[in-house]
Every structure is written in C-alpha cells, then in structure tokens.
Amino acid sequence: MERKLVKVGLMGFGTVGTGVIRLIQGHQEDLFKQTGVSIEVAKILVRDKAKPRSIDGLDEQVTDKPDDLLQDPQIDVIVEVIGGIHPAKEYILAALEHGKHVVTANKDLMALHGAEILEKAQEKGCDVFYEASVAGGIPILRALVEGFSSDRITKMMGIVNGTTNYILTKMSEEGAAYADVLKEAQALGYAEADPTSDVEGFDAARKMAILSTLGFRVPLRLEDVEVKGISKVSREDIAYGKKLGYAVKLIGLAQRDGEEIEVSVQPTMVHKTHPLASVNGVFNAVYVHGEAVGETMFYGPGAGELPTATAVVSDLVTVVKNMKLGVNGRGMVAPYKEKVLKDDSNKLSRYFLRMIVTDKRGVLAQLTQLLAENNISLVQVLQQPYNAGAQAEIILVTHQAAKRDMDAVLAILADLDIIVEVKSCYRVEGEEE
Ligand code: NAP
Ligand code: HSE
Description:
Layout (H helix, E strand, L loop, with lengths): L4 E7 L3 H12 L1 H8 L2 E8 L16 E2 L3 H4 L4 E6 L7 H10 L3 E4 L2 H18 L3 E2 L10 H8 L5 E7 L2 H13 L3 H10 L8 H4 L2 H15 L9 E2 L7 H9 L2 E12 L2 E12 L11 E8 L3 E8 L3 H21 L14 E2 L6 E11 L4 H11 L4 E9 L4 E8 L2 E2 H13 L3 E11 L4
Parallel strand pairs: 1-2, 1-4, 2-3, 4-5, 5-6, 8-10, 10-13, 10-18
Antiparallel strand pairs: 7-9, 7-11, 9-10, 11-12, 14-16, 14-17, 14-18, 15-16
Helix pairs in contact: 1-12, 4-5, 5-10, 7-8
This protein binds NADP nicotinamide-adenine-dinucleotide phosphate and L-homoserine.
C-alpha cells in the first residue's frame, strides 16, 4: 500500500527545531503536493521538559527520553538539531542502526565524524543529509554535489560564519569596538554557545572542511584546515585596508592547483571589486570557481530560525521523495580522489603587512632588500609618522609570494632592530596581479 504519512522524530526544540516545526506546520499543503505524503513531527526530544516553548500544543510529543524516538518503529526519519558531538553522534548512529534516515544541521559532528556516519548510512541503506550545516539557508551543499557534478571546482571562497562577518562589518562601518560587537552578536543569537568557535575561526574551519570534501571530492579532515580567527583584527587594520581599497573579511579559502589543494580560514584583505567584499552583516556567501562554468556566487542568511529550517526541511523532503522511489542511501558518492595537500612553498598569495619601524634613513631600503632576498616584491607602500614622529608606520602590499617566503620574512622581522613591532599580516584576495 502506498505510504500516506511519514513520521519524524525531532531531536532539539531550540532555535532550529522551532523553525522546523513552524515550516512543517505552515507549509503542510505544499509539502504534501511535492511529496504526496503528510509529514508529521511525532516526537520531540529536549533536555528540559519543563522549559516553556514558543509553539503551543506539543506537550504530548515532547520527551526527554531519546529511546522514545530511536525505538519507535513508526518513526522513519530523525532530524538532529541538538548540536555538539556527544550525544548527537551516538543518537545518529543508533538511528541509522534502526534503519532510520537522518537529517542534521550539525557542522561540528559532520566535520569531525562525517565519514563514519556516512559509512554507517551506506551500510544500512539510509539517507544522511546535512545541508543546514554550512551557510544556514544557502543551498550550497546540494549545489556542490549536484550543480557542479559535471565541472571541476578550482576555488571556493566563503564567508561562512555570520558572527564574525557581523563583527567585522560593524567595526568597519561604525568604528565599533570588537568586544562590544561580539556581545551584540551573542545577544542576537548568532554566536555559538562558546563564541571562541566563531571568533577563532573553528566554526568556519568545520564548514570549510565539509565544503572542500564535497567540492573537491577528497577525504579532507578538519586538521588539514589552517585556521586563524579575527580576535587580533584591529580597527587600524580595517581603516588602512579601506584606504587601500580592501575590506577585511574572515575568508574560508579552498584552492586546487592541479591535484594539490590548500584549505584555510583567515582574516583576509578582500579587494572592493570582489563580490565577497560587499557581503555584510550576518550574511554568508560562497564564491565558487569551476573550470568550465567560471565564477559563481551563492549568497544568503547563514543562520537564524527559519532560514536554517528551510535547509533542514528541504533535506527532509528529499528523504521522503527517496522513500517513495525506494532509493534511500543510493545517491551518496564517497570522496573518490586522493588527498594531496600543498606545502608552504606552493601556497601563493599577495600579502598586506603593517609594521612600526624606527624612523631612520635607509629603513625602507633595508626592508625592500630583505623582501627581495626572499623572492617578494611590492605593489604598494604607504608610510606615515607614528608616535608623534618618533617612529614610522609602514604598510606594504606585495605581489604574489609563497607562504614559506612570507613566514621566513616575518621570522626575520621579529628580531630586526629597525622593527618596533609587526602589527599585522593578511592575505590579499580579489585584485588581479
Ligand atoms: P539551541 O537553540 O541551543 O537548541 C538546542 C536544542 O537541543 C534545545 O531544545 C535543547 O533542549 C536540545 N538539547 C541539547 N542537548 C540535548 C541533549 N543532550 N538531549 C536532548 N536534547 C538536547 O541550538 P540551535 O541554535 O537550534 O542549533 C542546533 C543545531 O543547528 C546545532 O548543531 C547548530 O550548530 C546548528 N545550526 C544552527 C544555526 C542557527 O542559526 N542557530 C544555523 C546553522 C546550523 P532544551 O530546549 O530543553 O534545552
Ligand atoms: N555561529 C554560527 C555563525 C551559526 O555565526 O555563522 C551558524 O552556523
């Protein structure tokens, strides 16, 4: 008999869980027309049953016992939106063990244990989808897996953390102080429970690990991603960047040259002519370059109740359609390319360097000689008095240089007597050489 109802076990009734219920309830008719079945949230797992909820009438469904969902044979799909690694991982593996399909928004879990979860899903003939784990409401994972299946991606650049983009935008547009805007981002619900994940780049790194695995079809691991956050970005860096035509953004970069790849997350000077430079506030965007298609960009809200829920419920619709076709677990393609990581001599970038120097004759010449000796040449130099003229502030923008050479220069500068302090060093993106 053809199925007319699919029952969902929802784990989590917080920001995303609430949005999932609202969308399923509010779009019931559209969902039915697209799938031919009614989707019902049969049980909802929470930590604290006594907590007030913003949707009424669900007391019967709410439980604090995971087995009420995992052991219920009527439940076909588990939607995991509790977050974190444990017990989310155990719940998902148990759900798959029981033959239930899984939809999750959990980037921490998928970045660290995605391979194990997907392997278990394959073994059990179940679907696991995780569109909401990267860039919230932007359907970027589906675009990478399906839309780019005929192409070879060479570069992805993402603003994939809304909290840090909100902080950098406010610092740039209003001259606001980092600590004040971070508090604001927390109050607005953008930040993770521990905002260190956001500001130190770990959240973006997890998302870039997921994007790179799918986009490059290689088994990339979280530890392959080089990470630097925004906690040391100063208002001065932002102001000088602006003066030279750049916006400071926390950029997740995934680049492929031949078969070699590099993946990093770091604050970057993005030239104002690049589309990522104008992605502001809590918005996310992912720029994807394919060998055949050229440049594309995906833009939208990276977090929030309803935007994130759209991605979760769309995954749910795909699971239900697969159930009707009897093809669950068959659409997954495991990474099939060998992972070859670039070494630092092959990681090429332009750099922005700001430093305070003693104001003596010949300092600039000494600096340019040091750079030249290390294969680095300059595009732009800005110098102005510092500390009432006792010292000078120098800003340099380089041509493309190897990371190995720039790191060598930074190590020498740290001990050079003419250098008072190297204030900052950023990669530069977006302007033609
Ligand atoms: P949240 O608001 O903190 O909600 C978490 C929910 O899970 C709460 O209902 C909580 O129960 C429940 N929960 C937590 N630990 C549990 C446990 N051990 N057992 C049972 N229930 C538990 O989190 P969220 O913002 O909705 O995020 C959920 C997931 O979506 C995370 O993986 C997050 O990274 C991801 N995500 C979130 C966003 C966003 O905009 N918020 C965007 C993209 C992805 P109580 O209500 O009883 O405390
Ligand atoms: N803390 C995350 C962000 C939430 O700011 O982007 C969405 O993953």
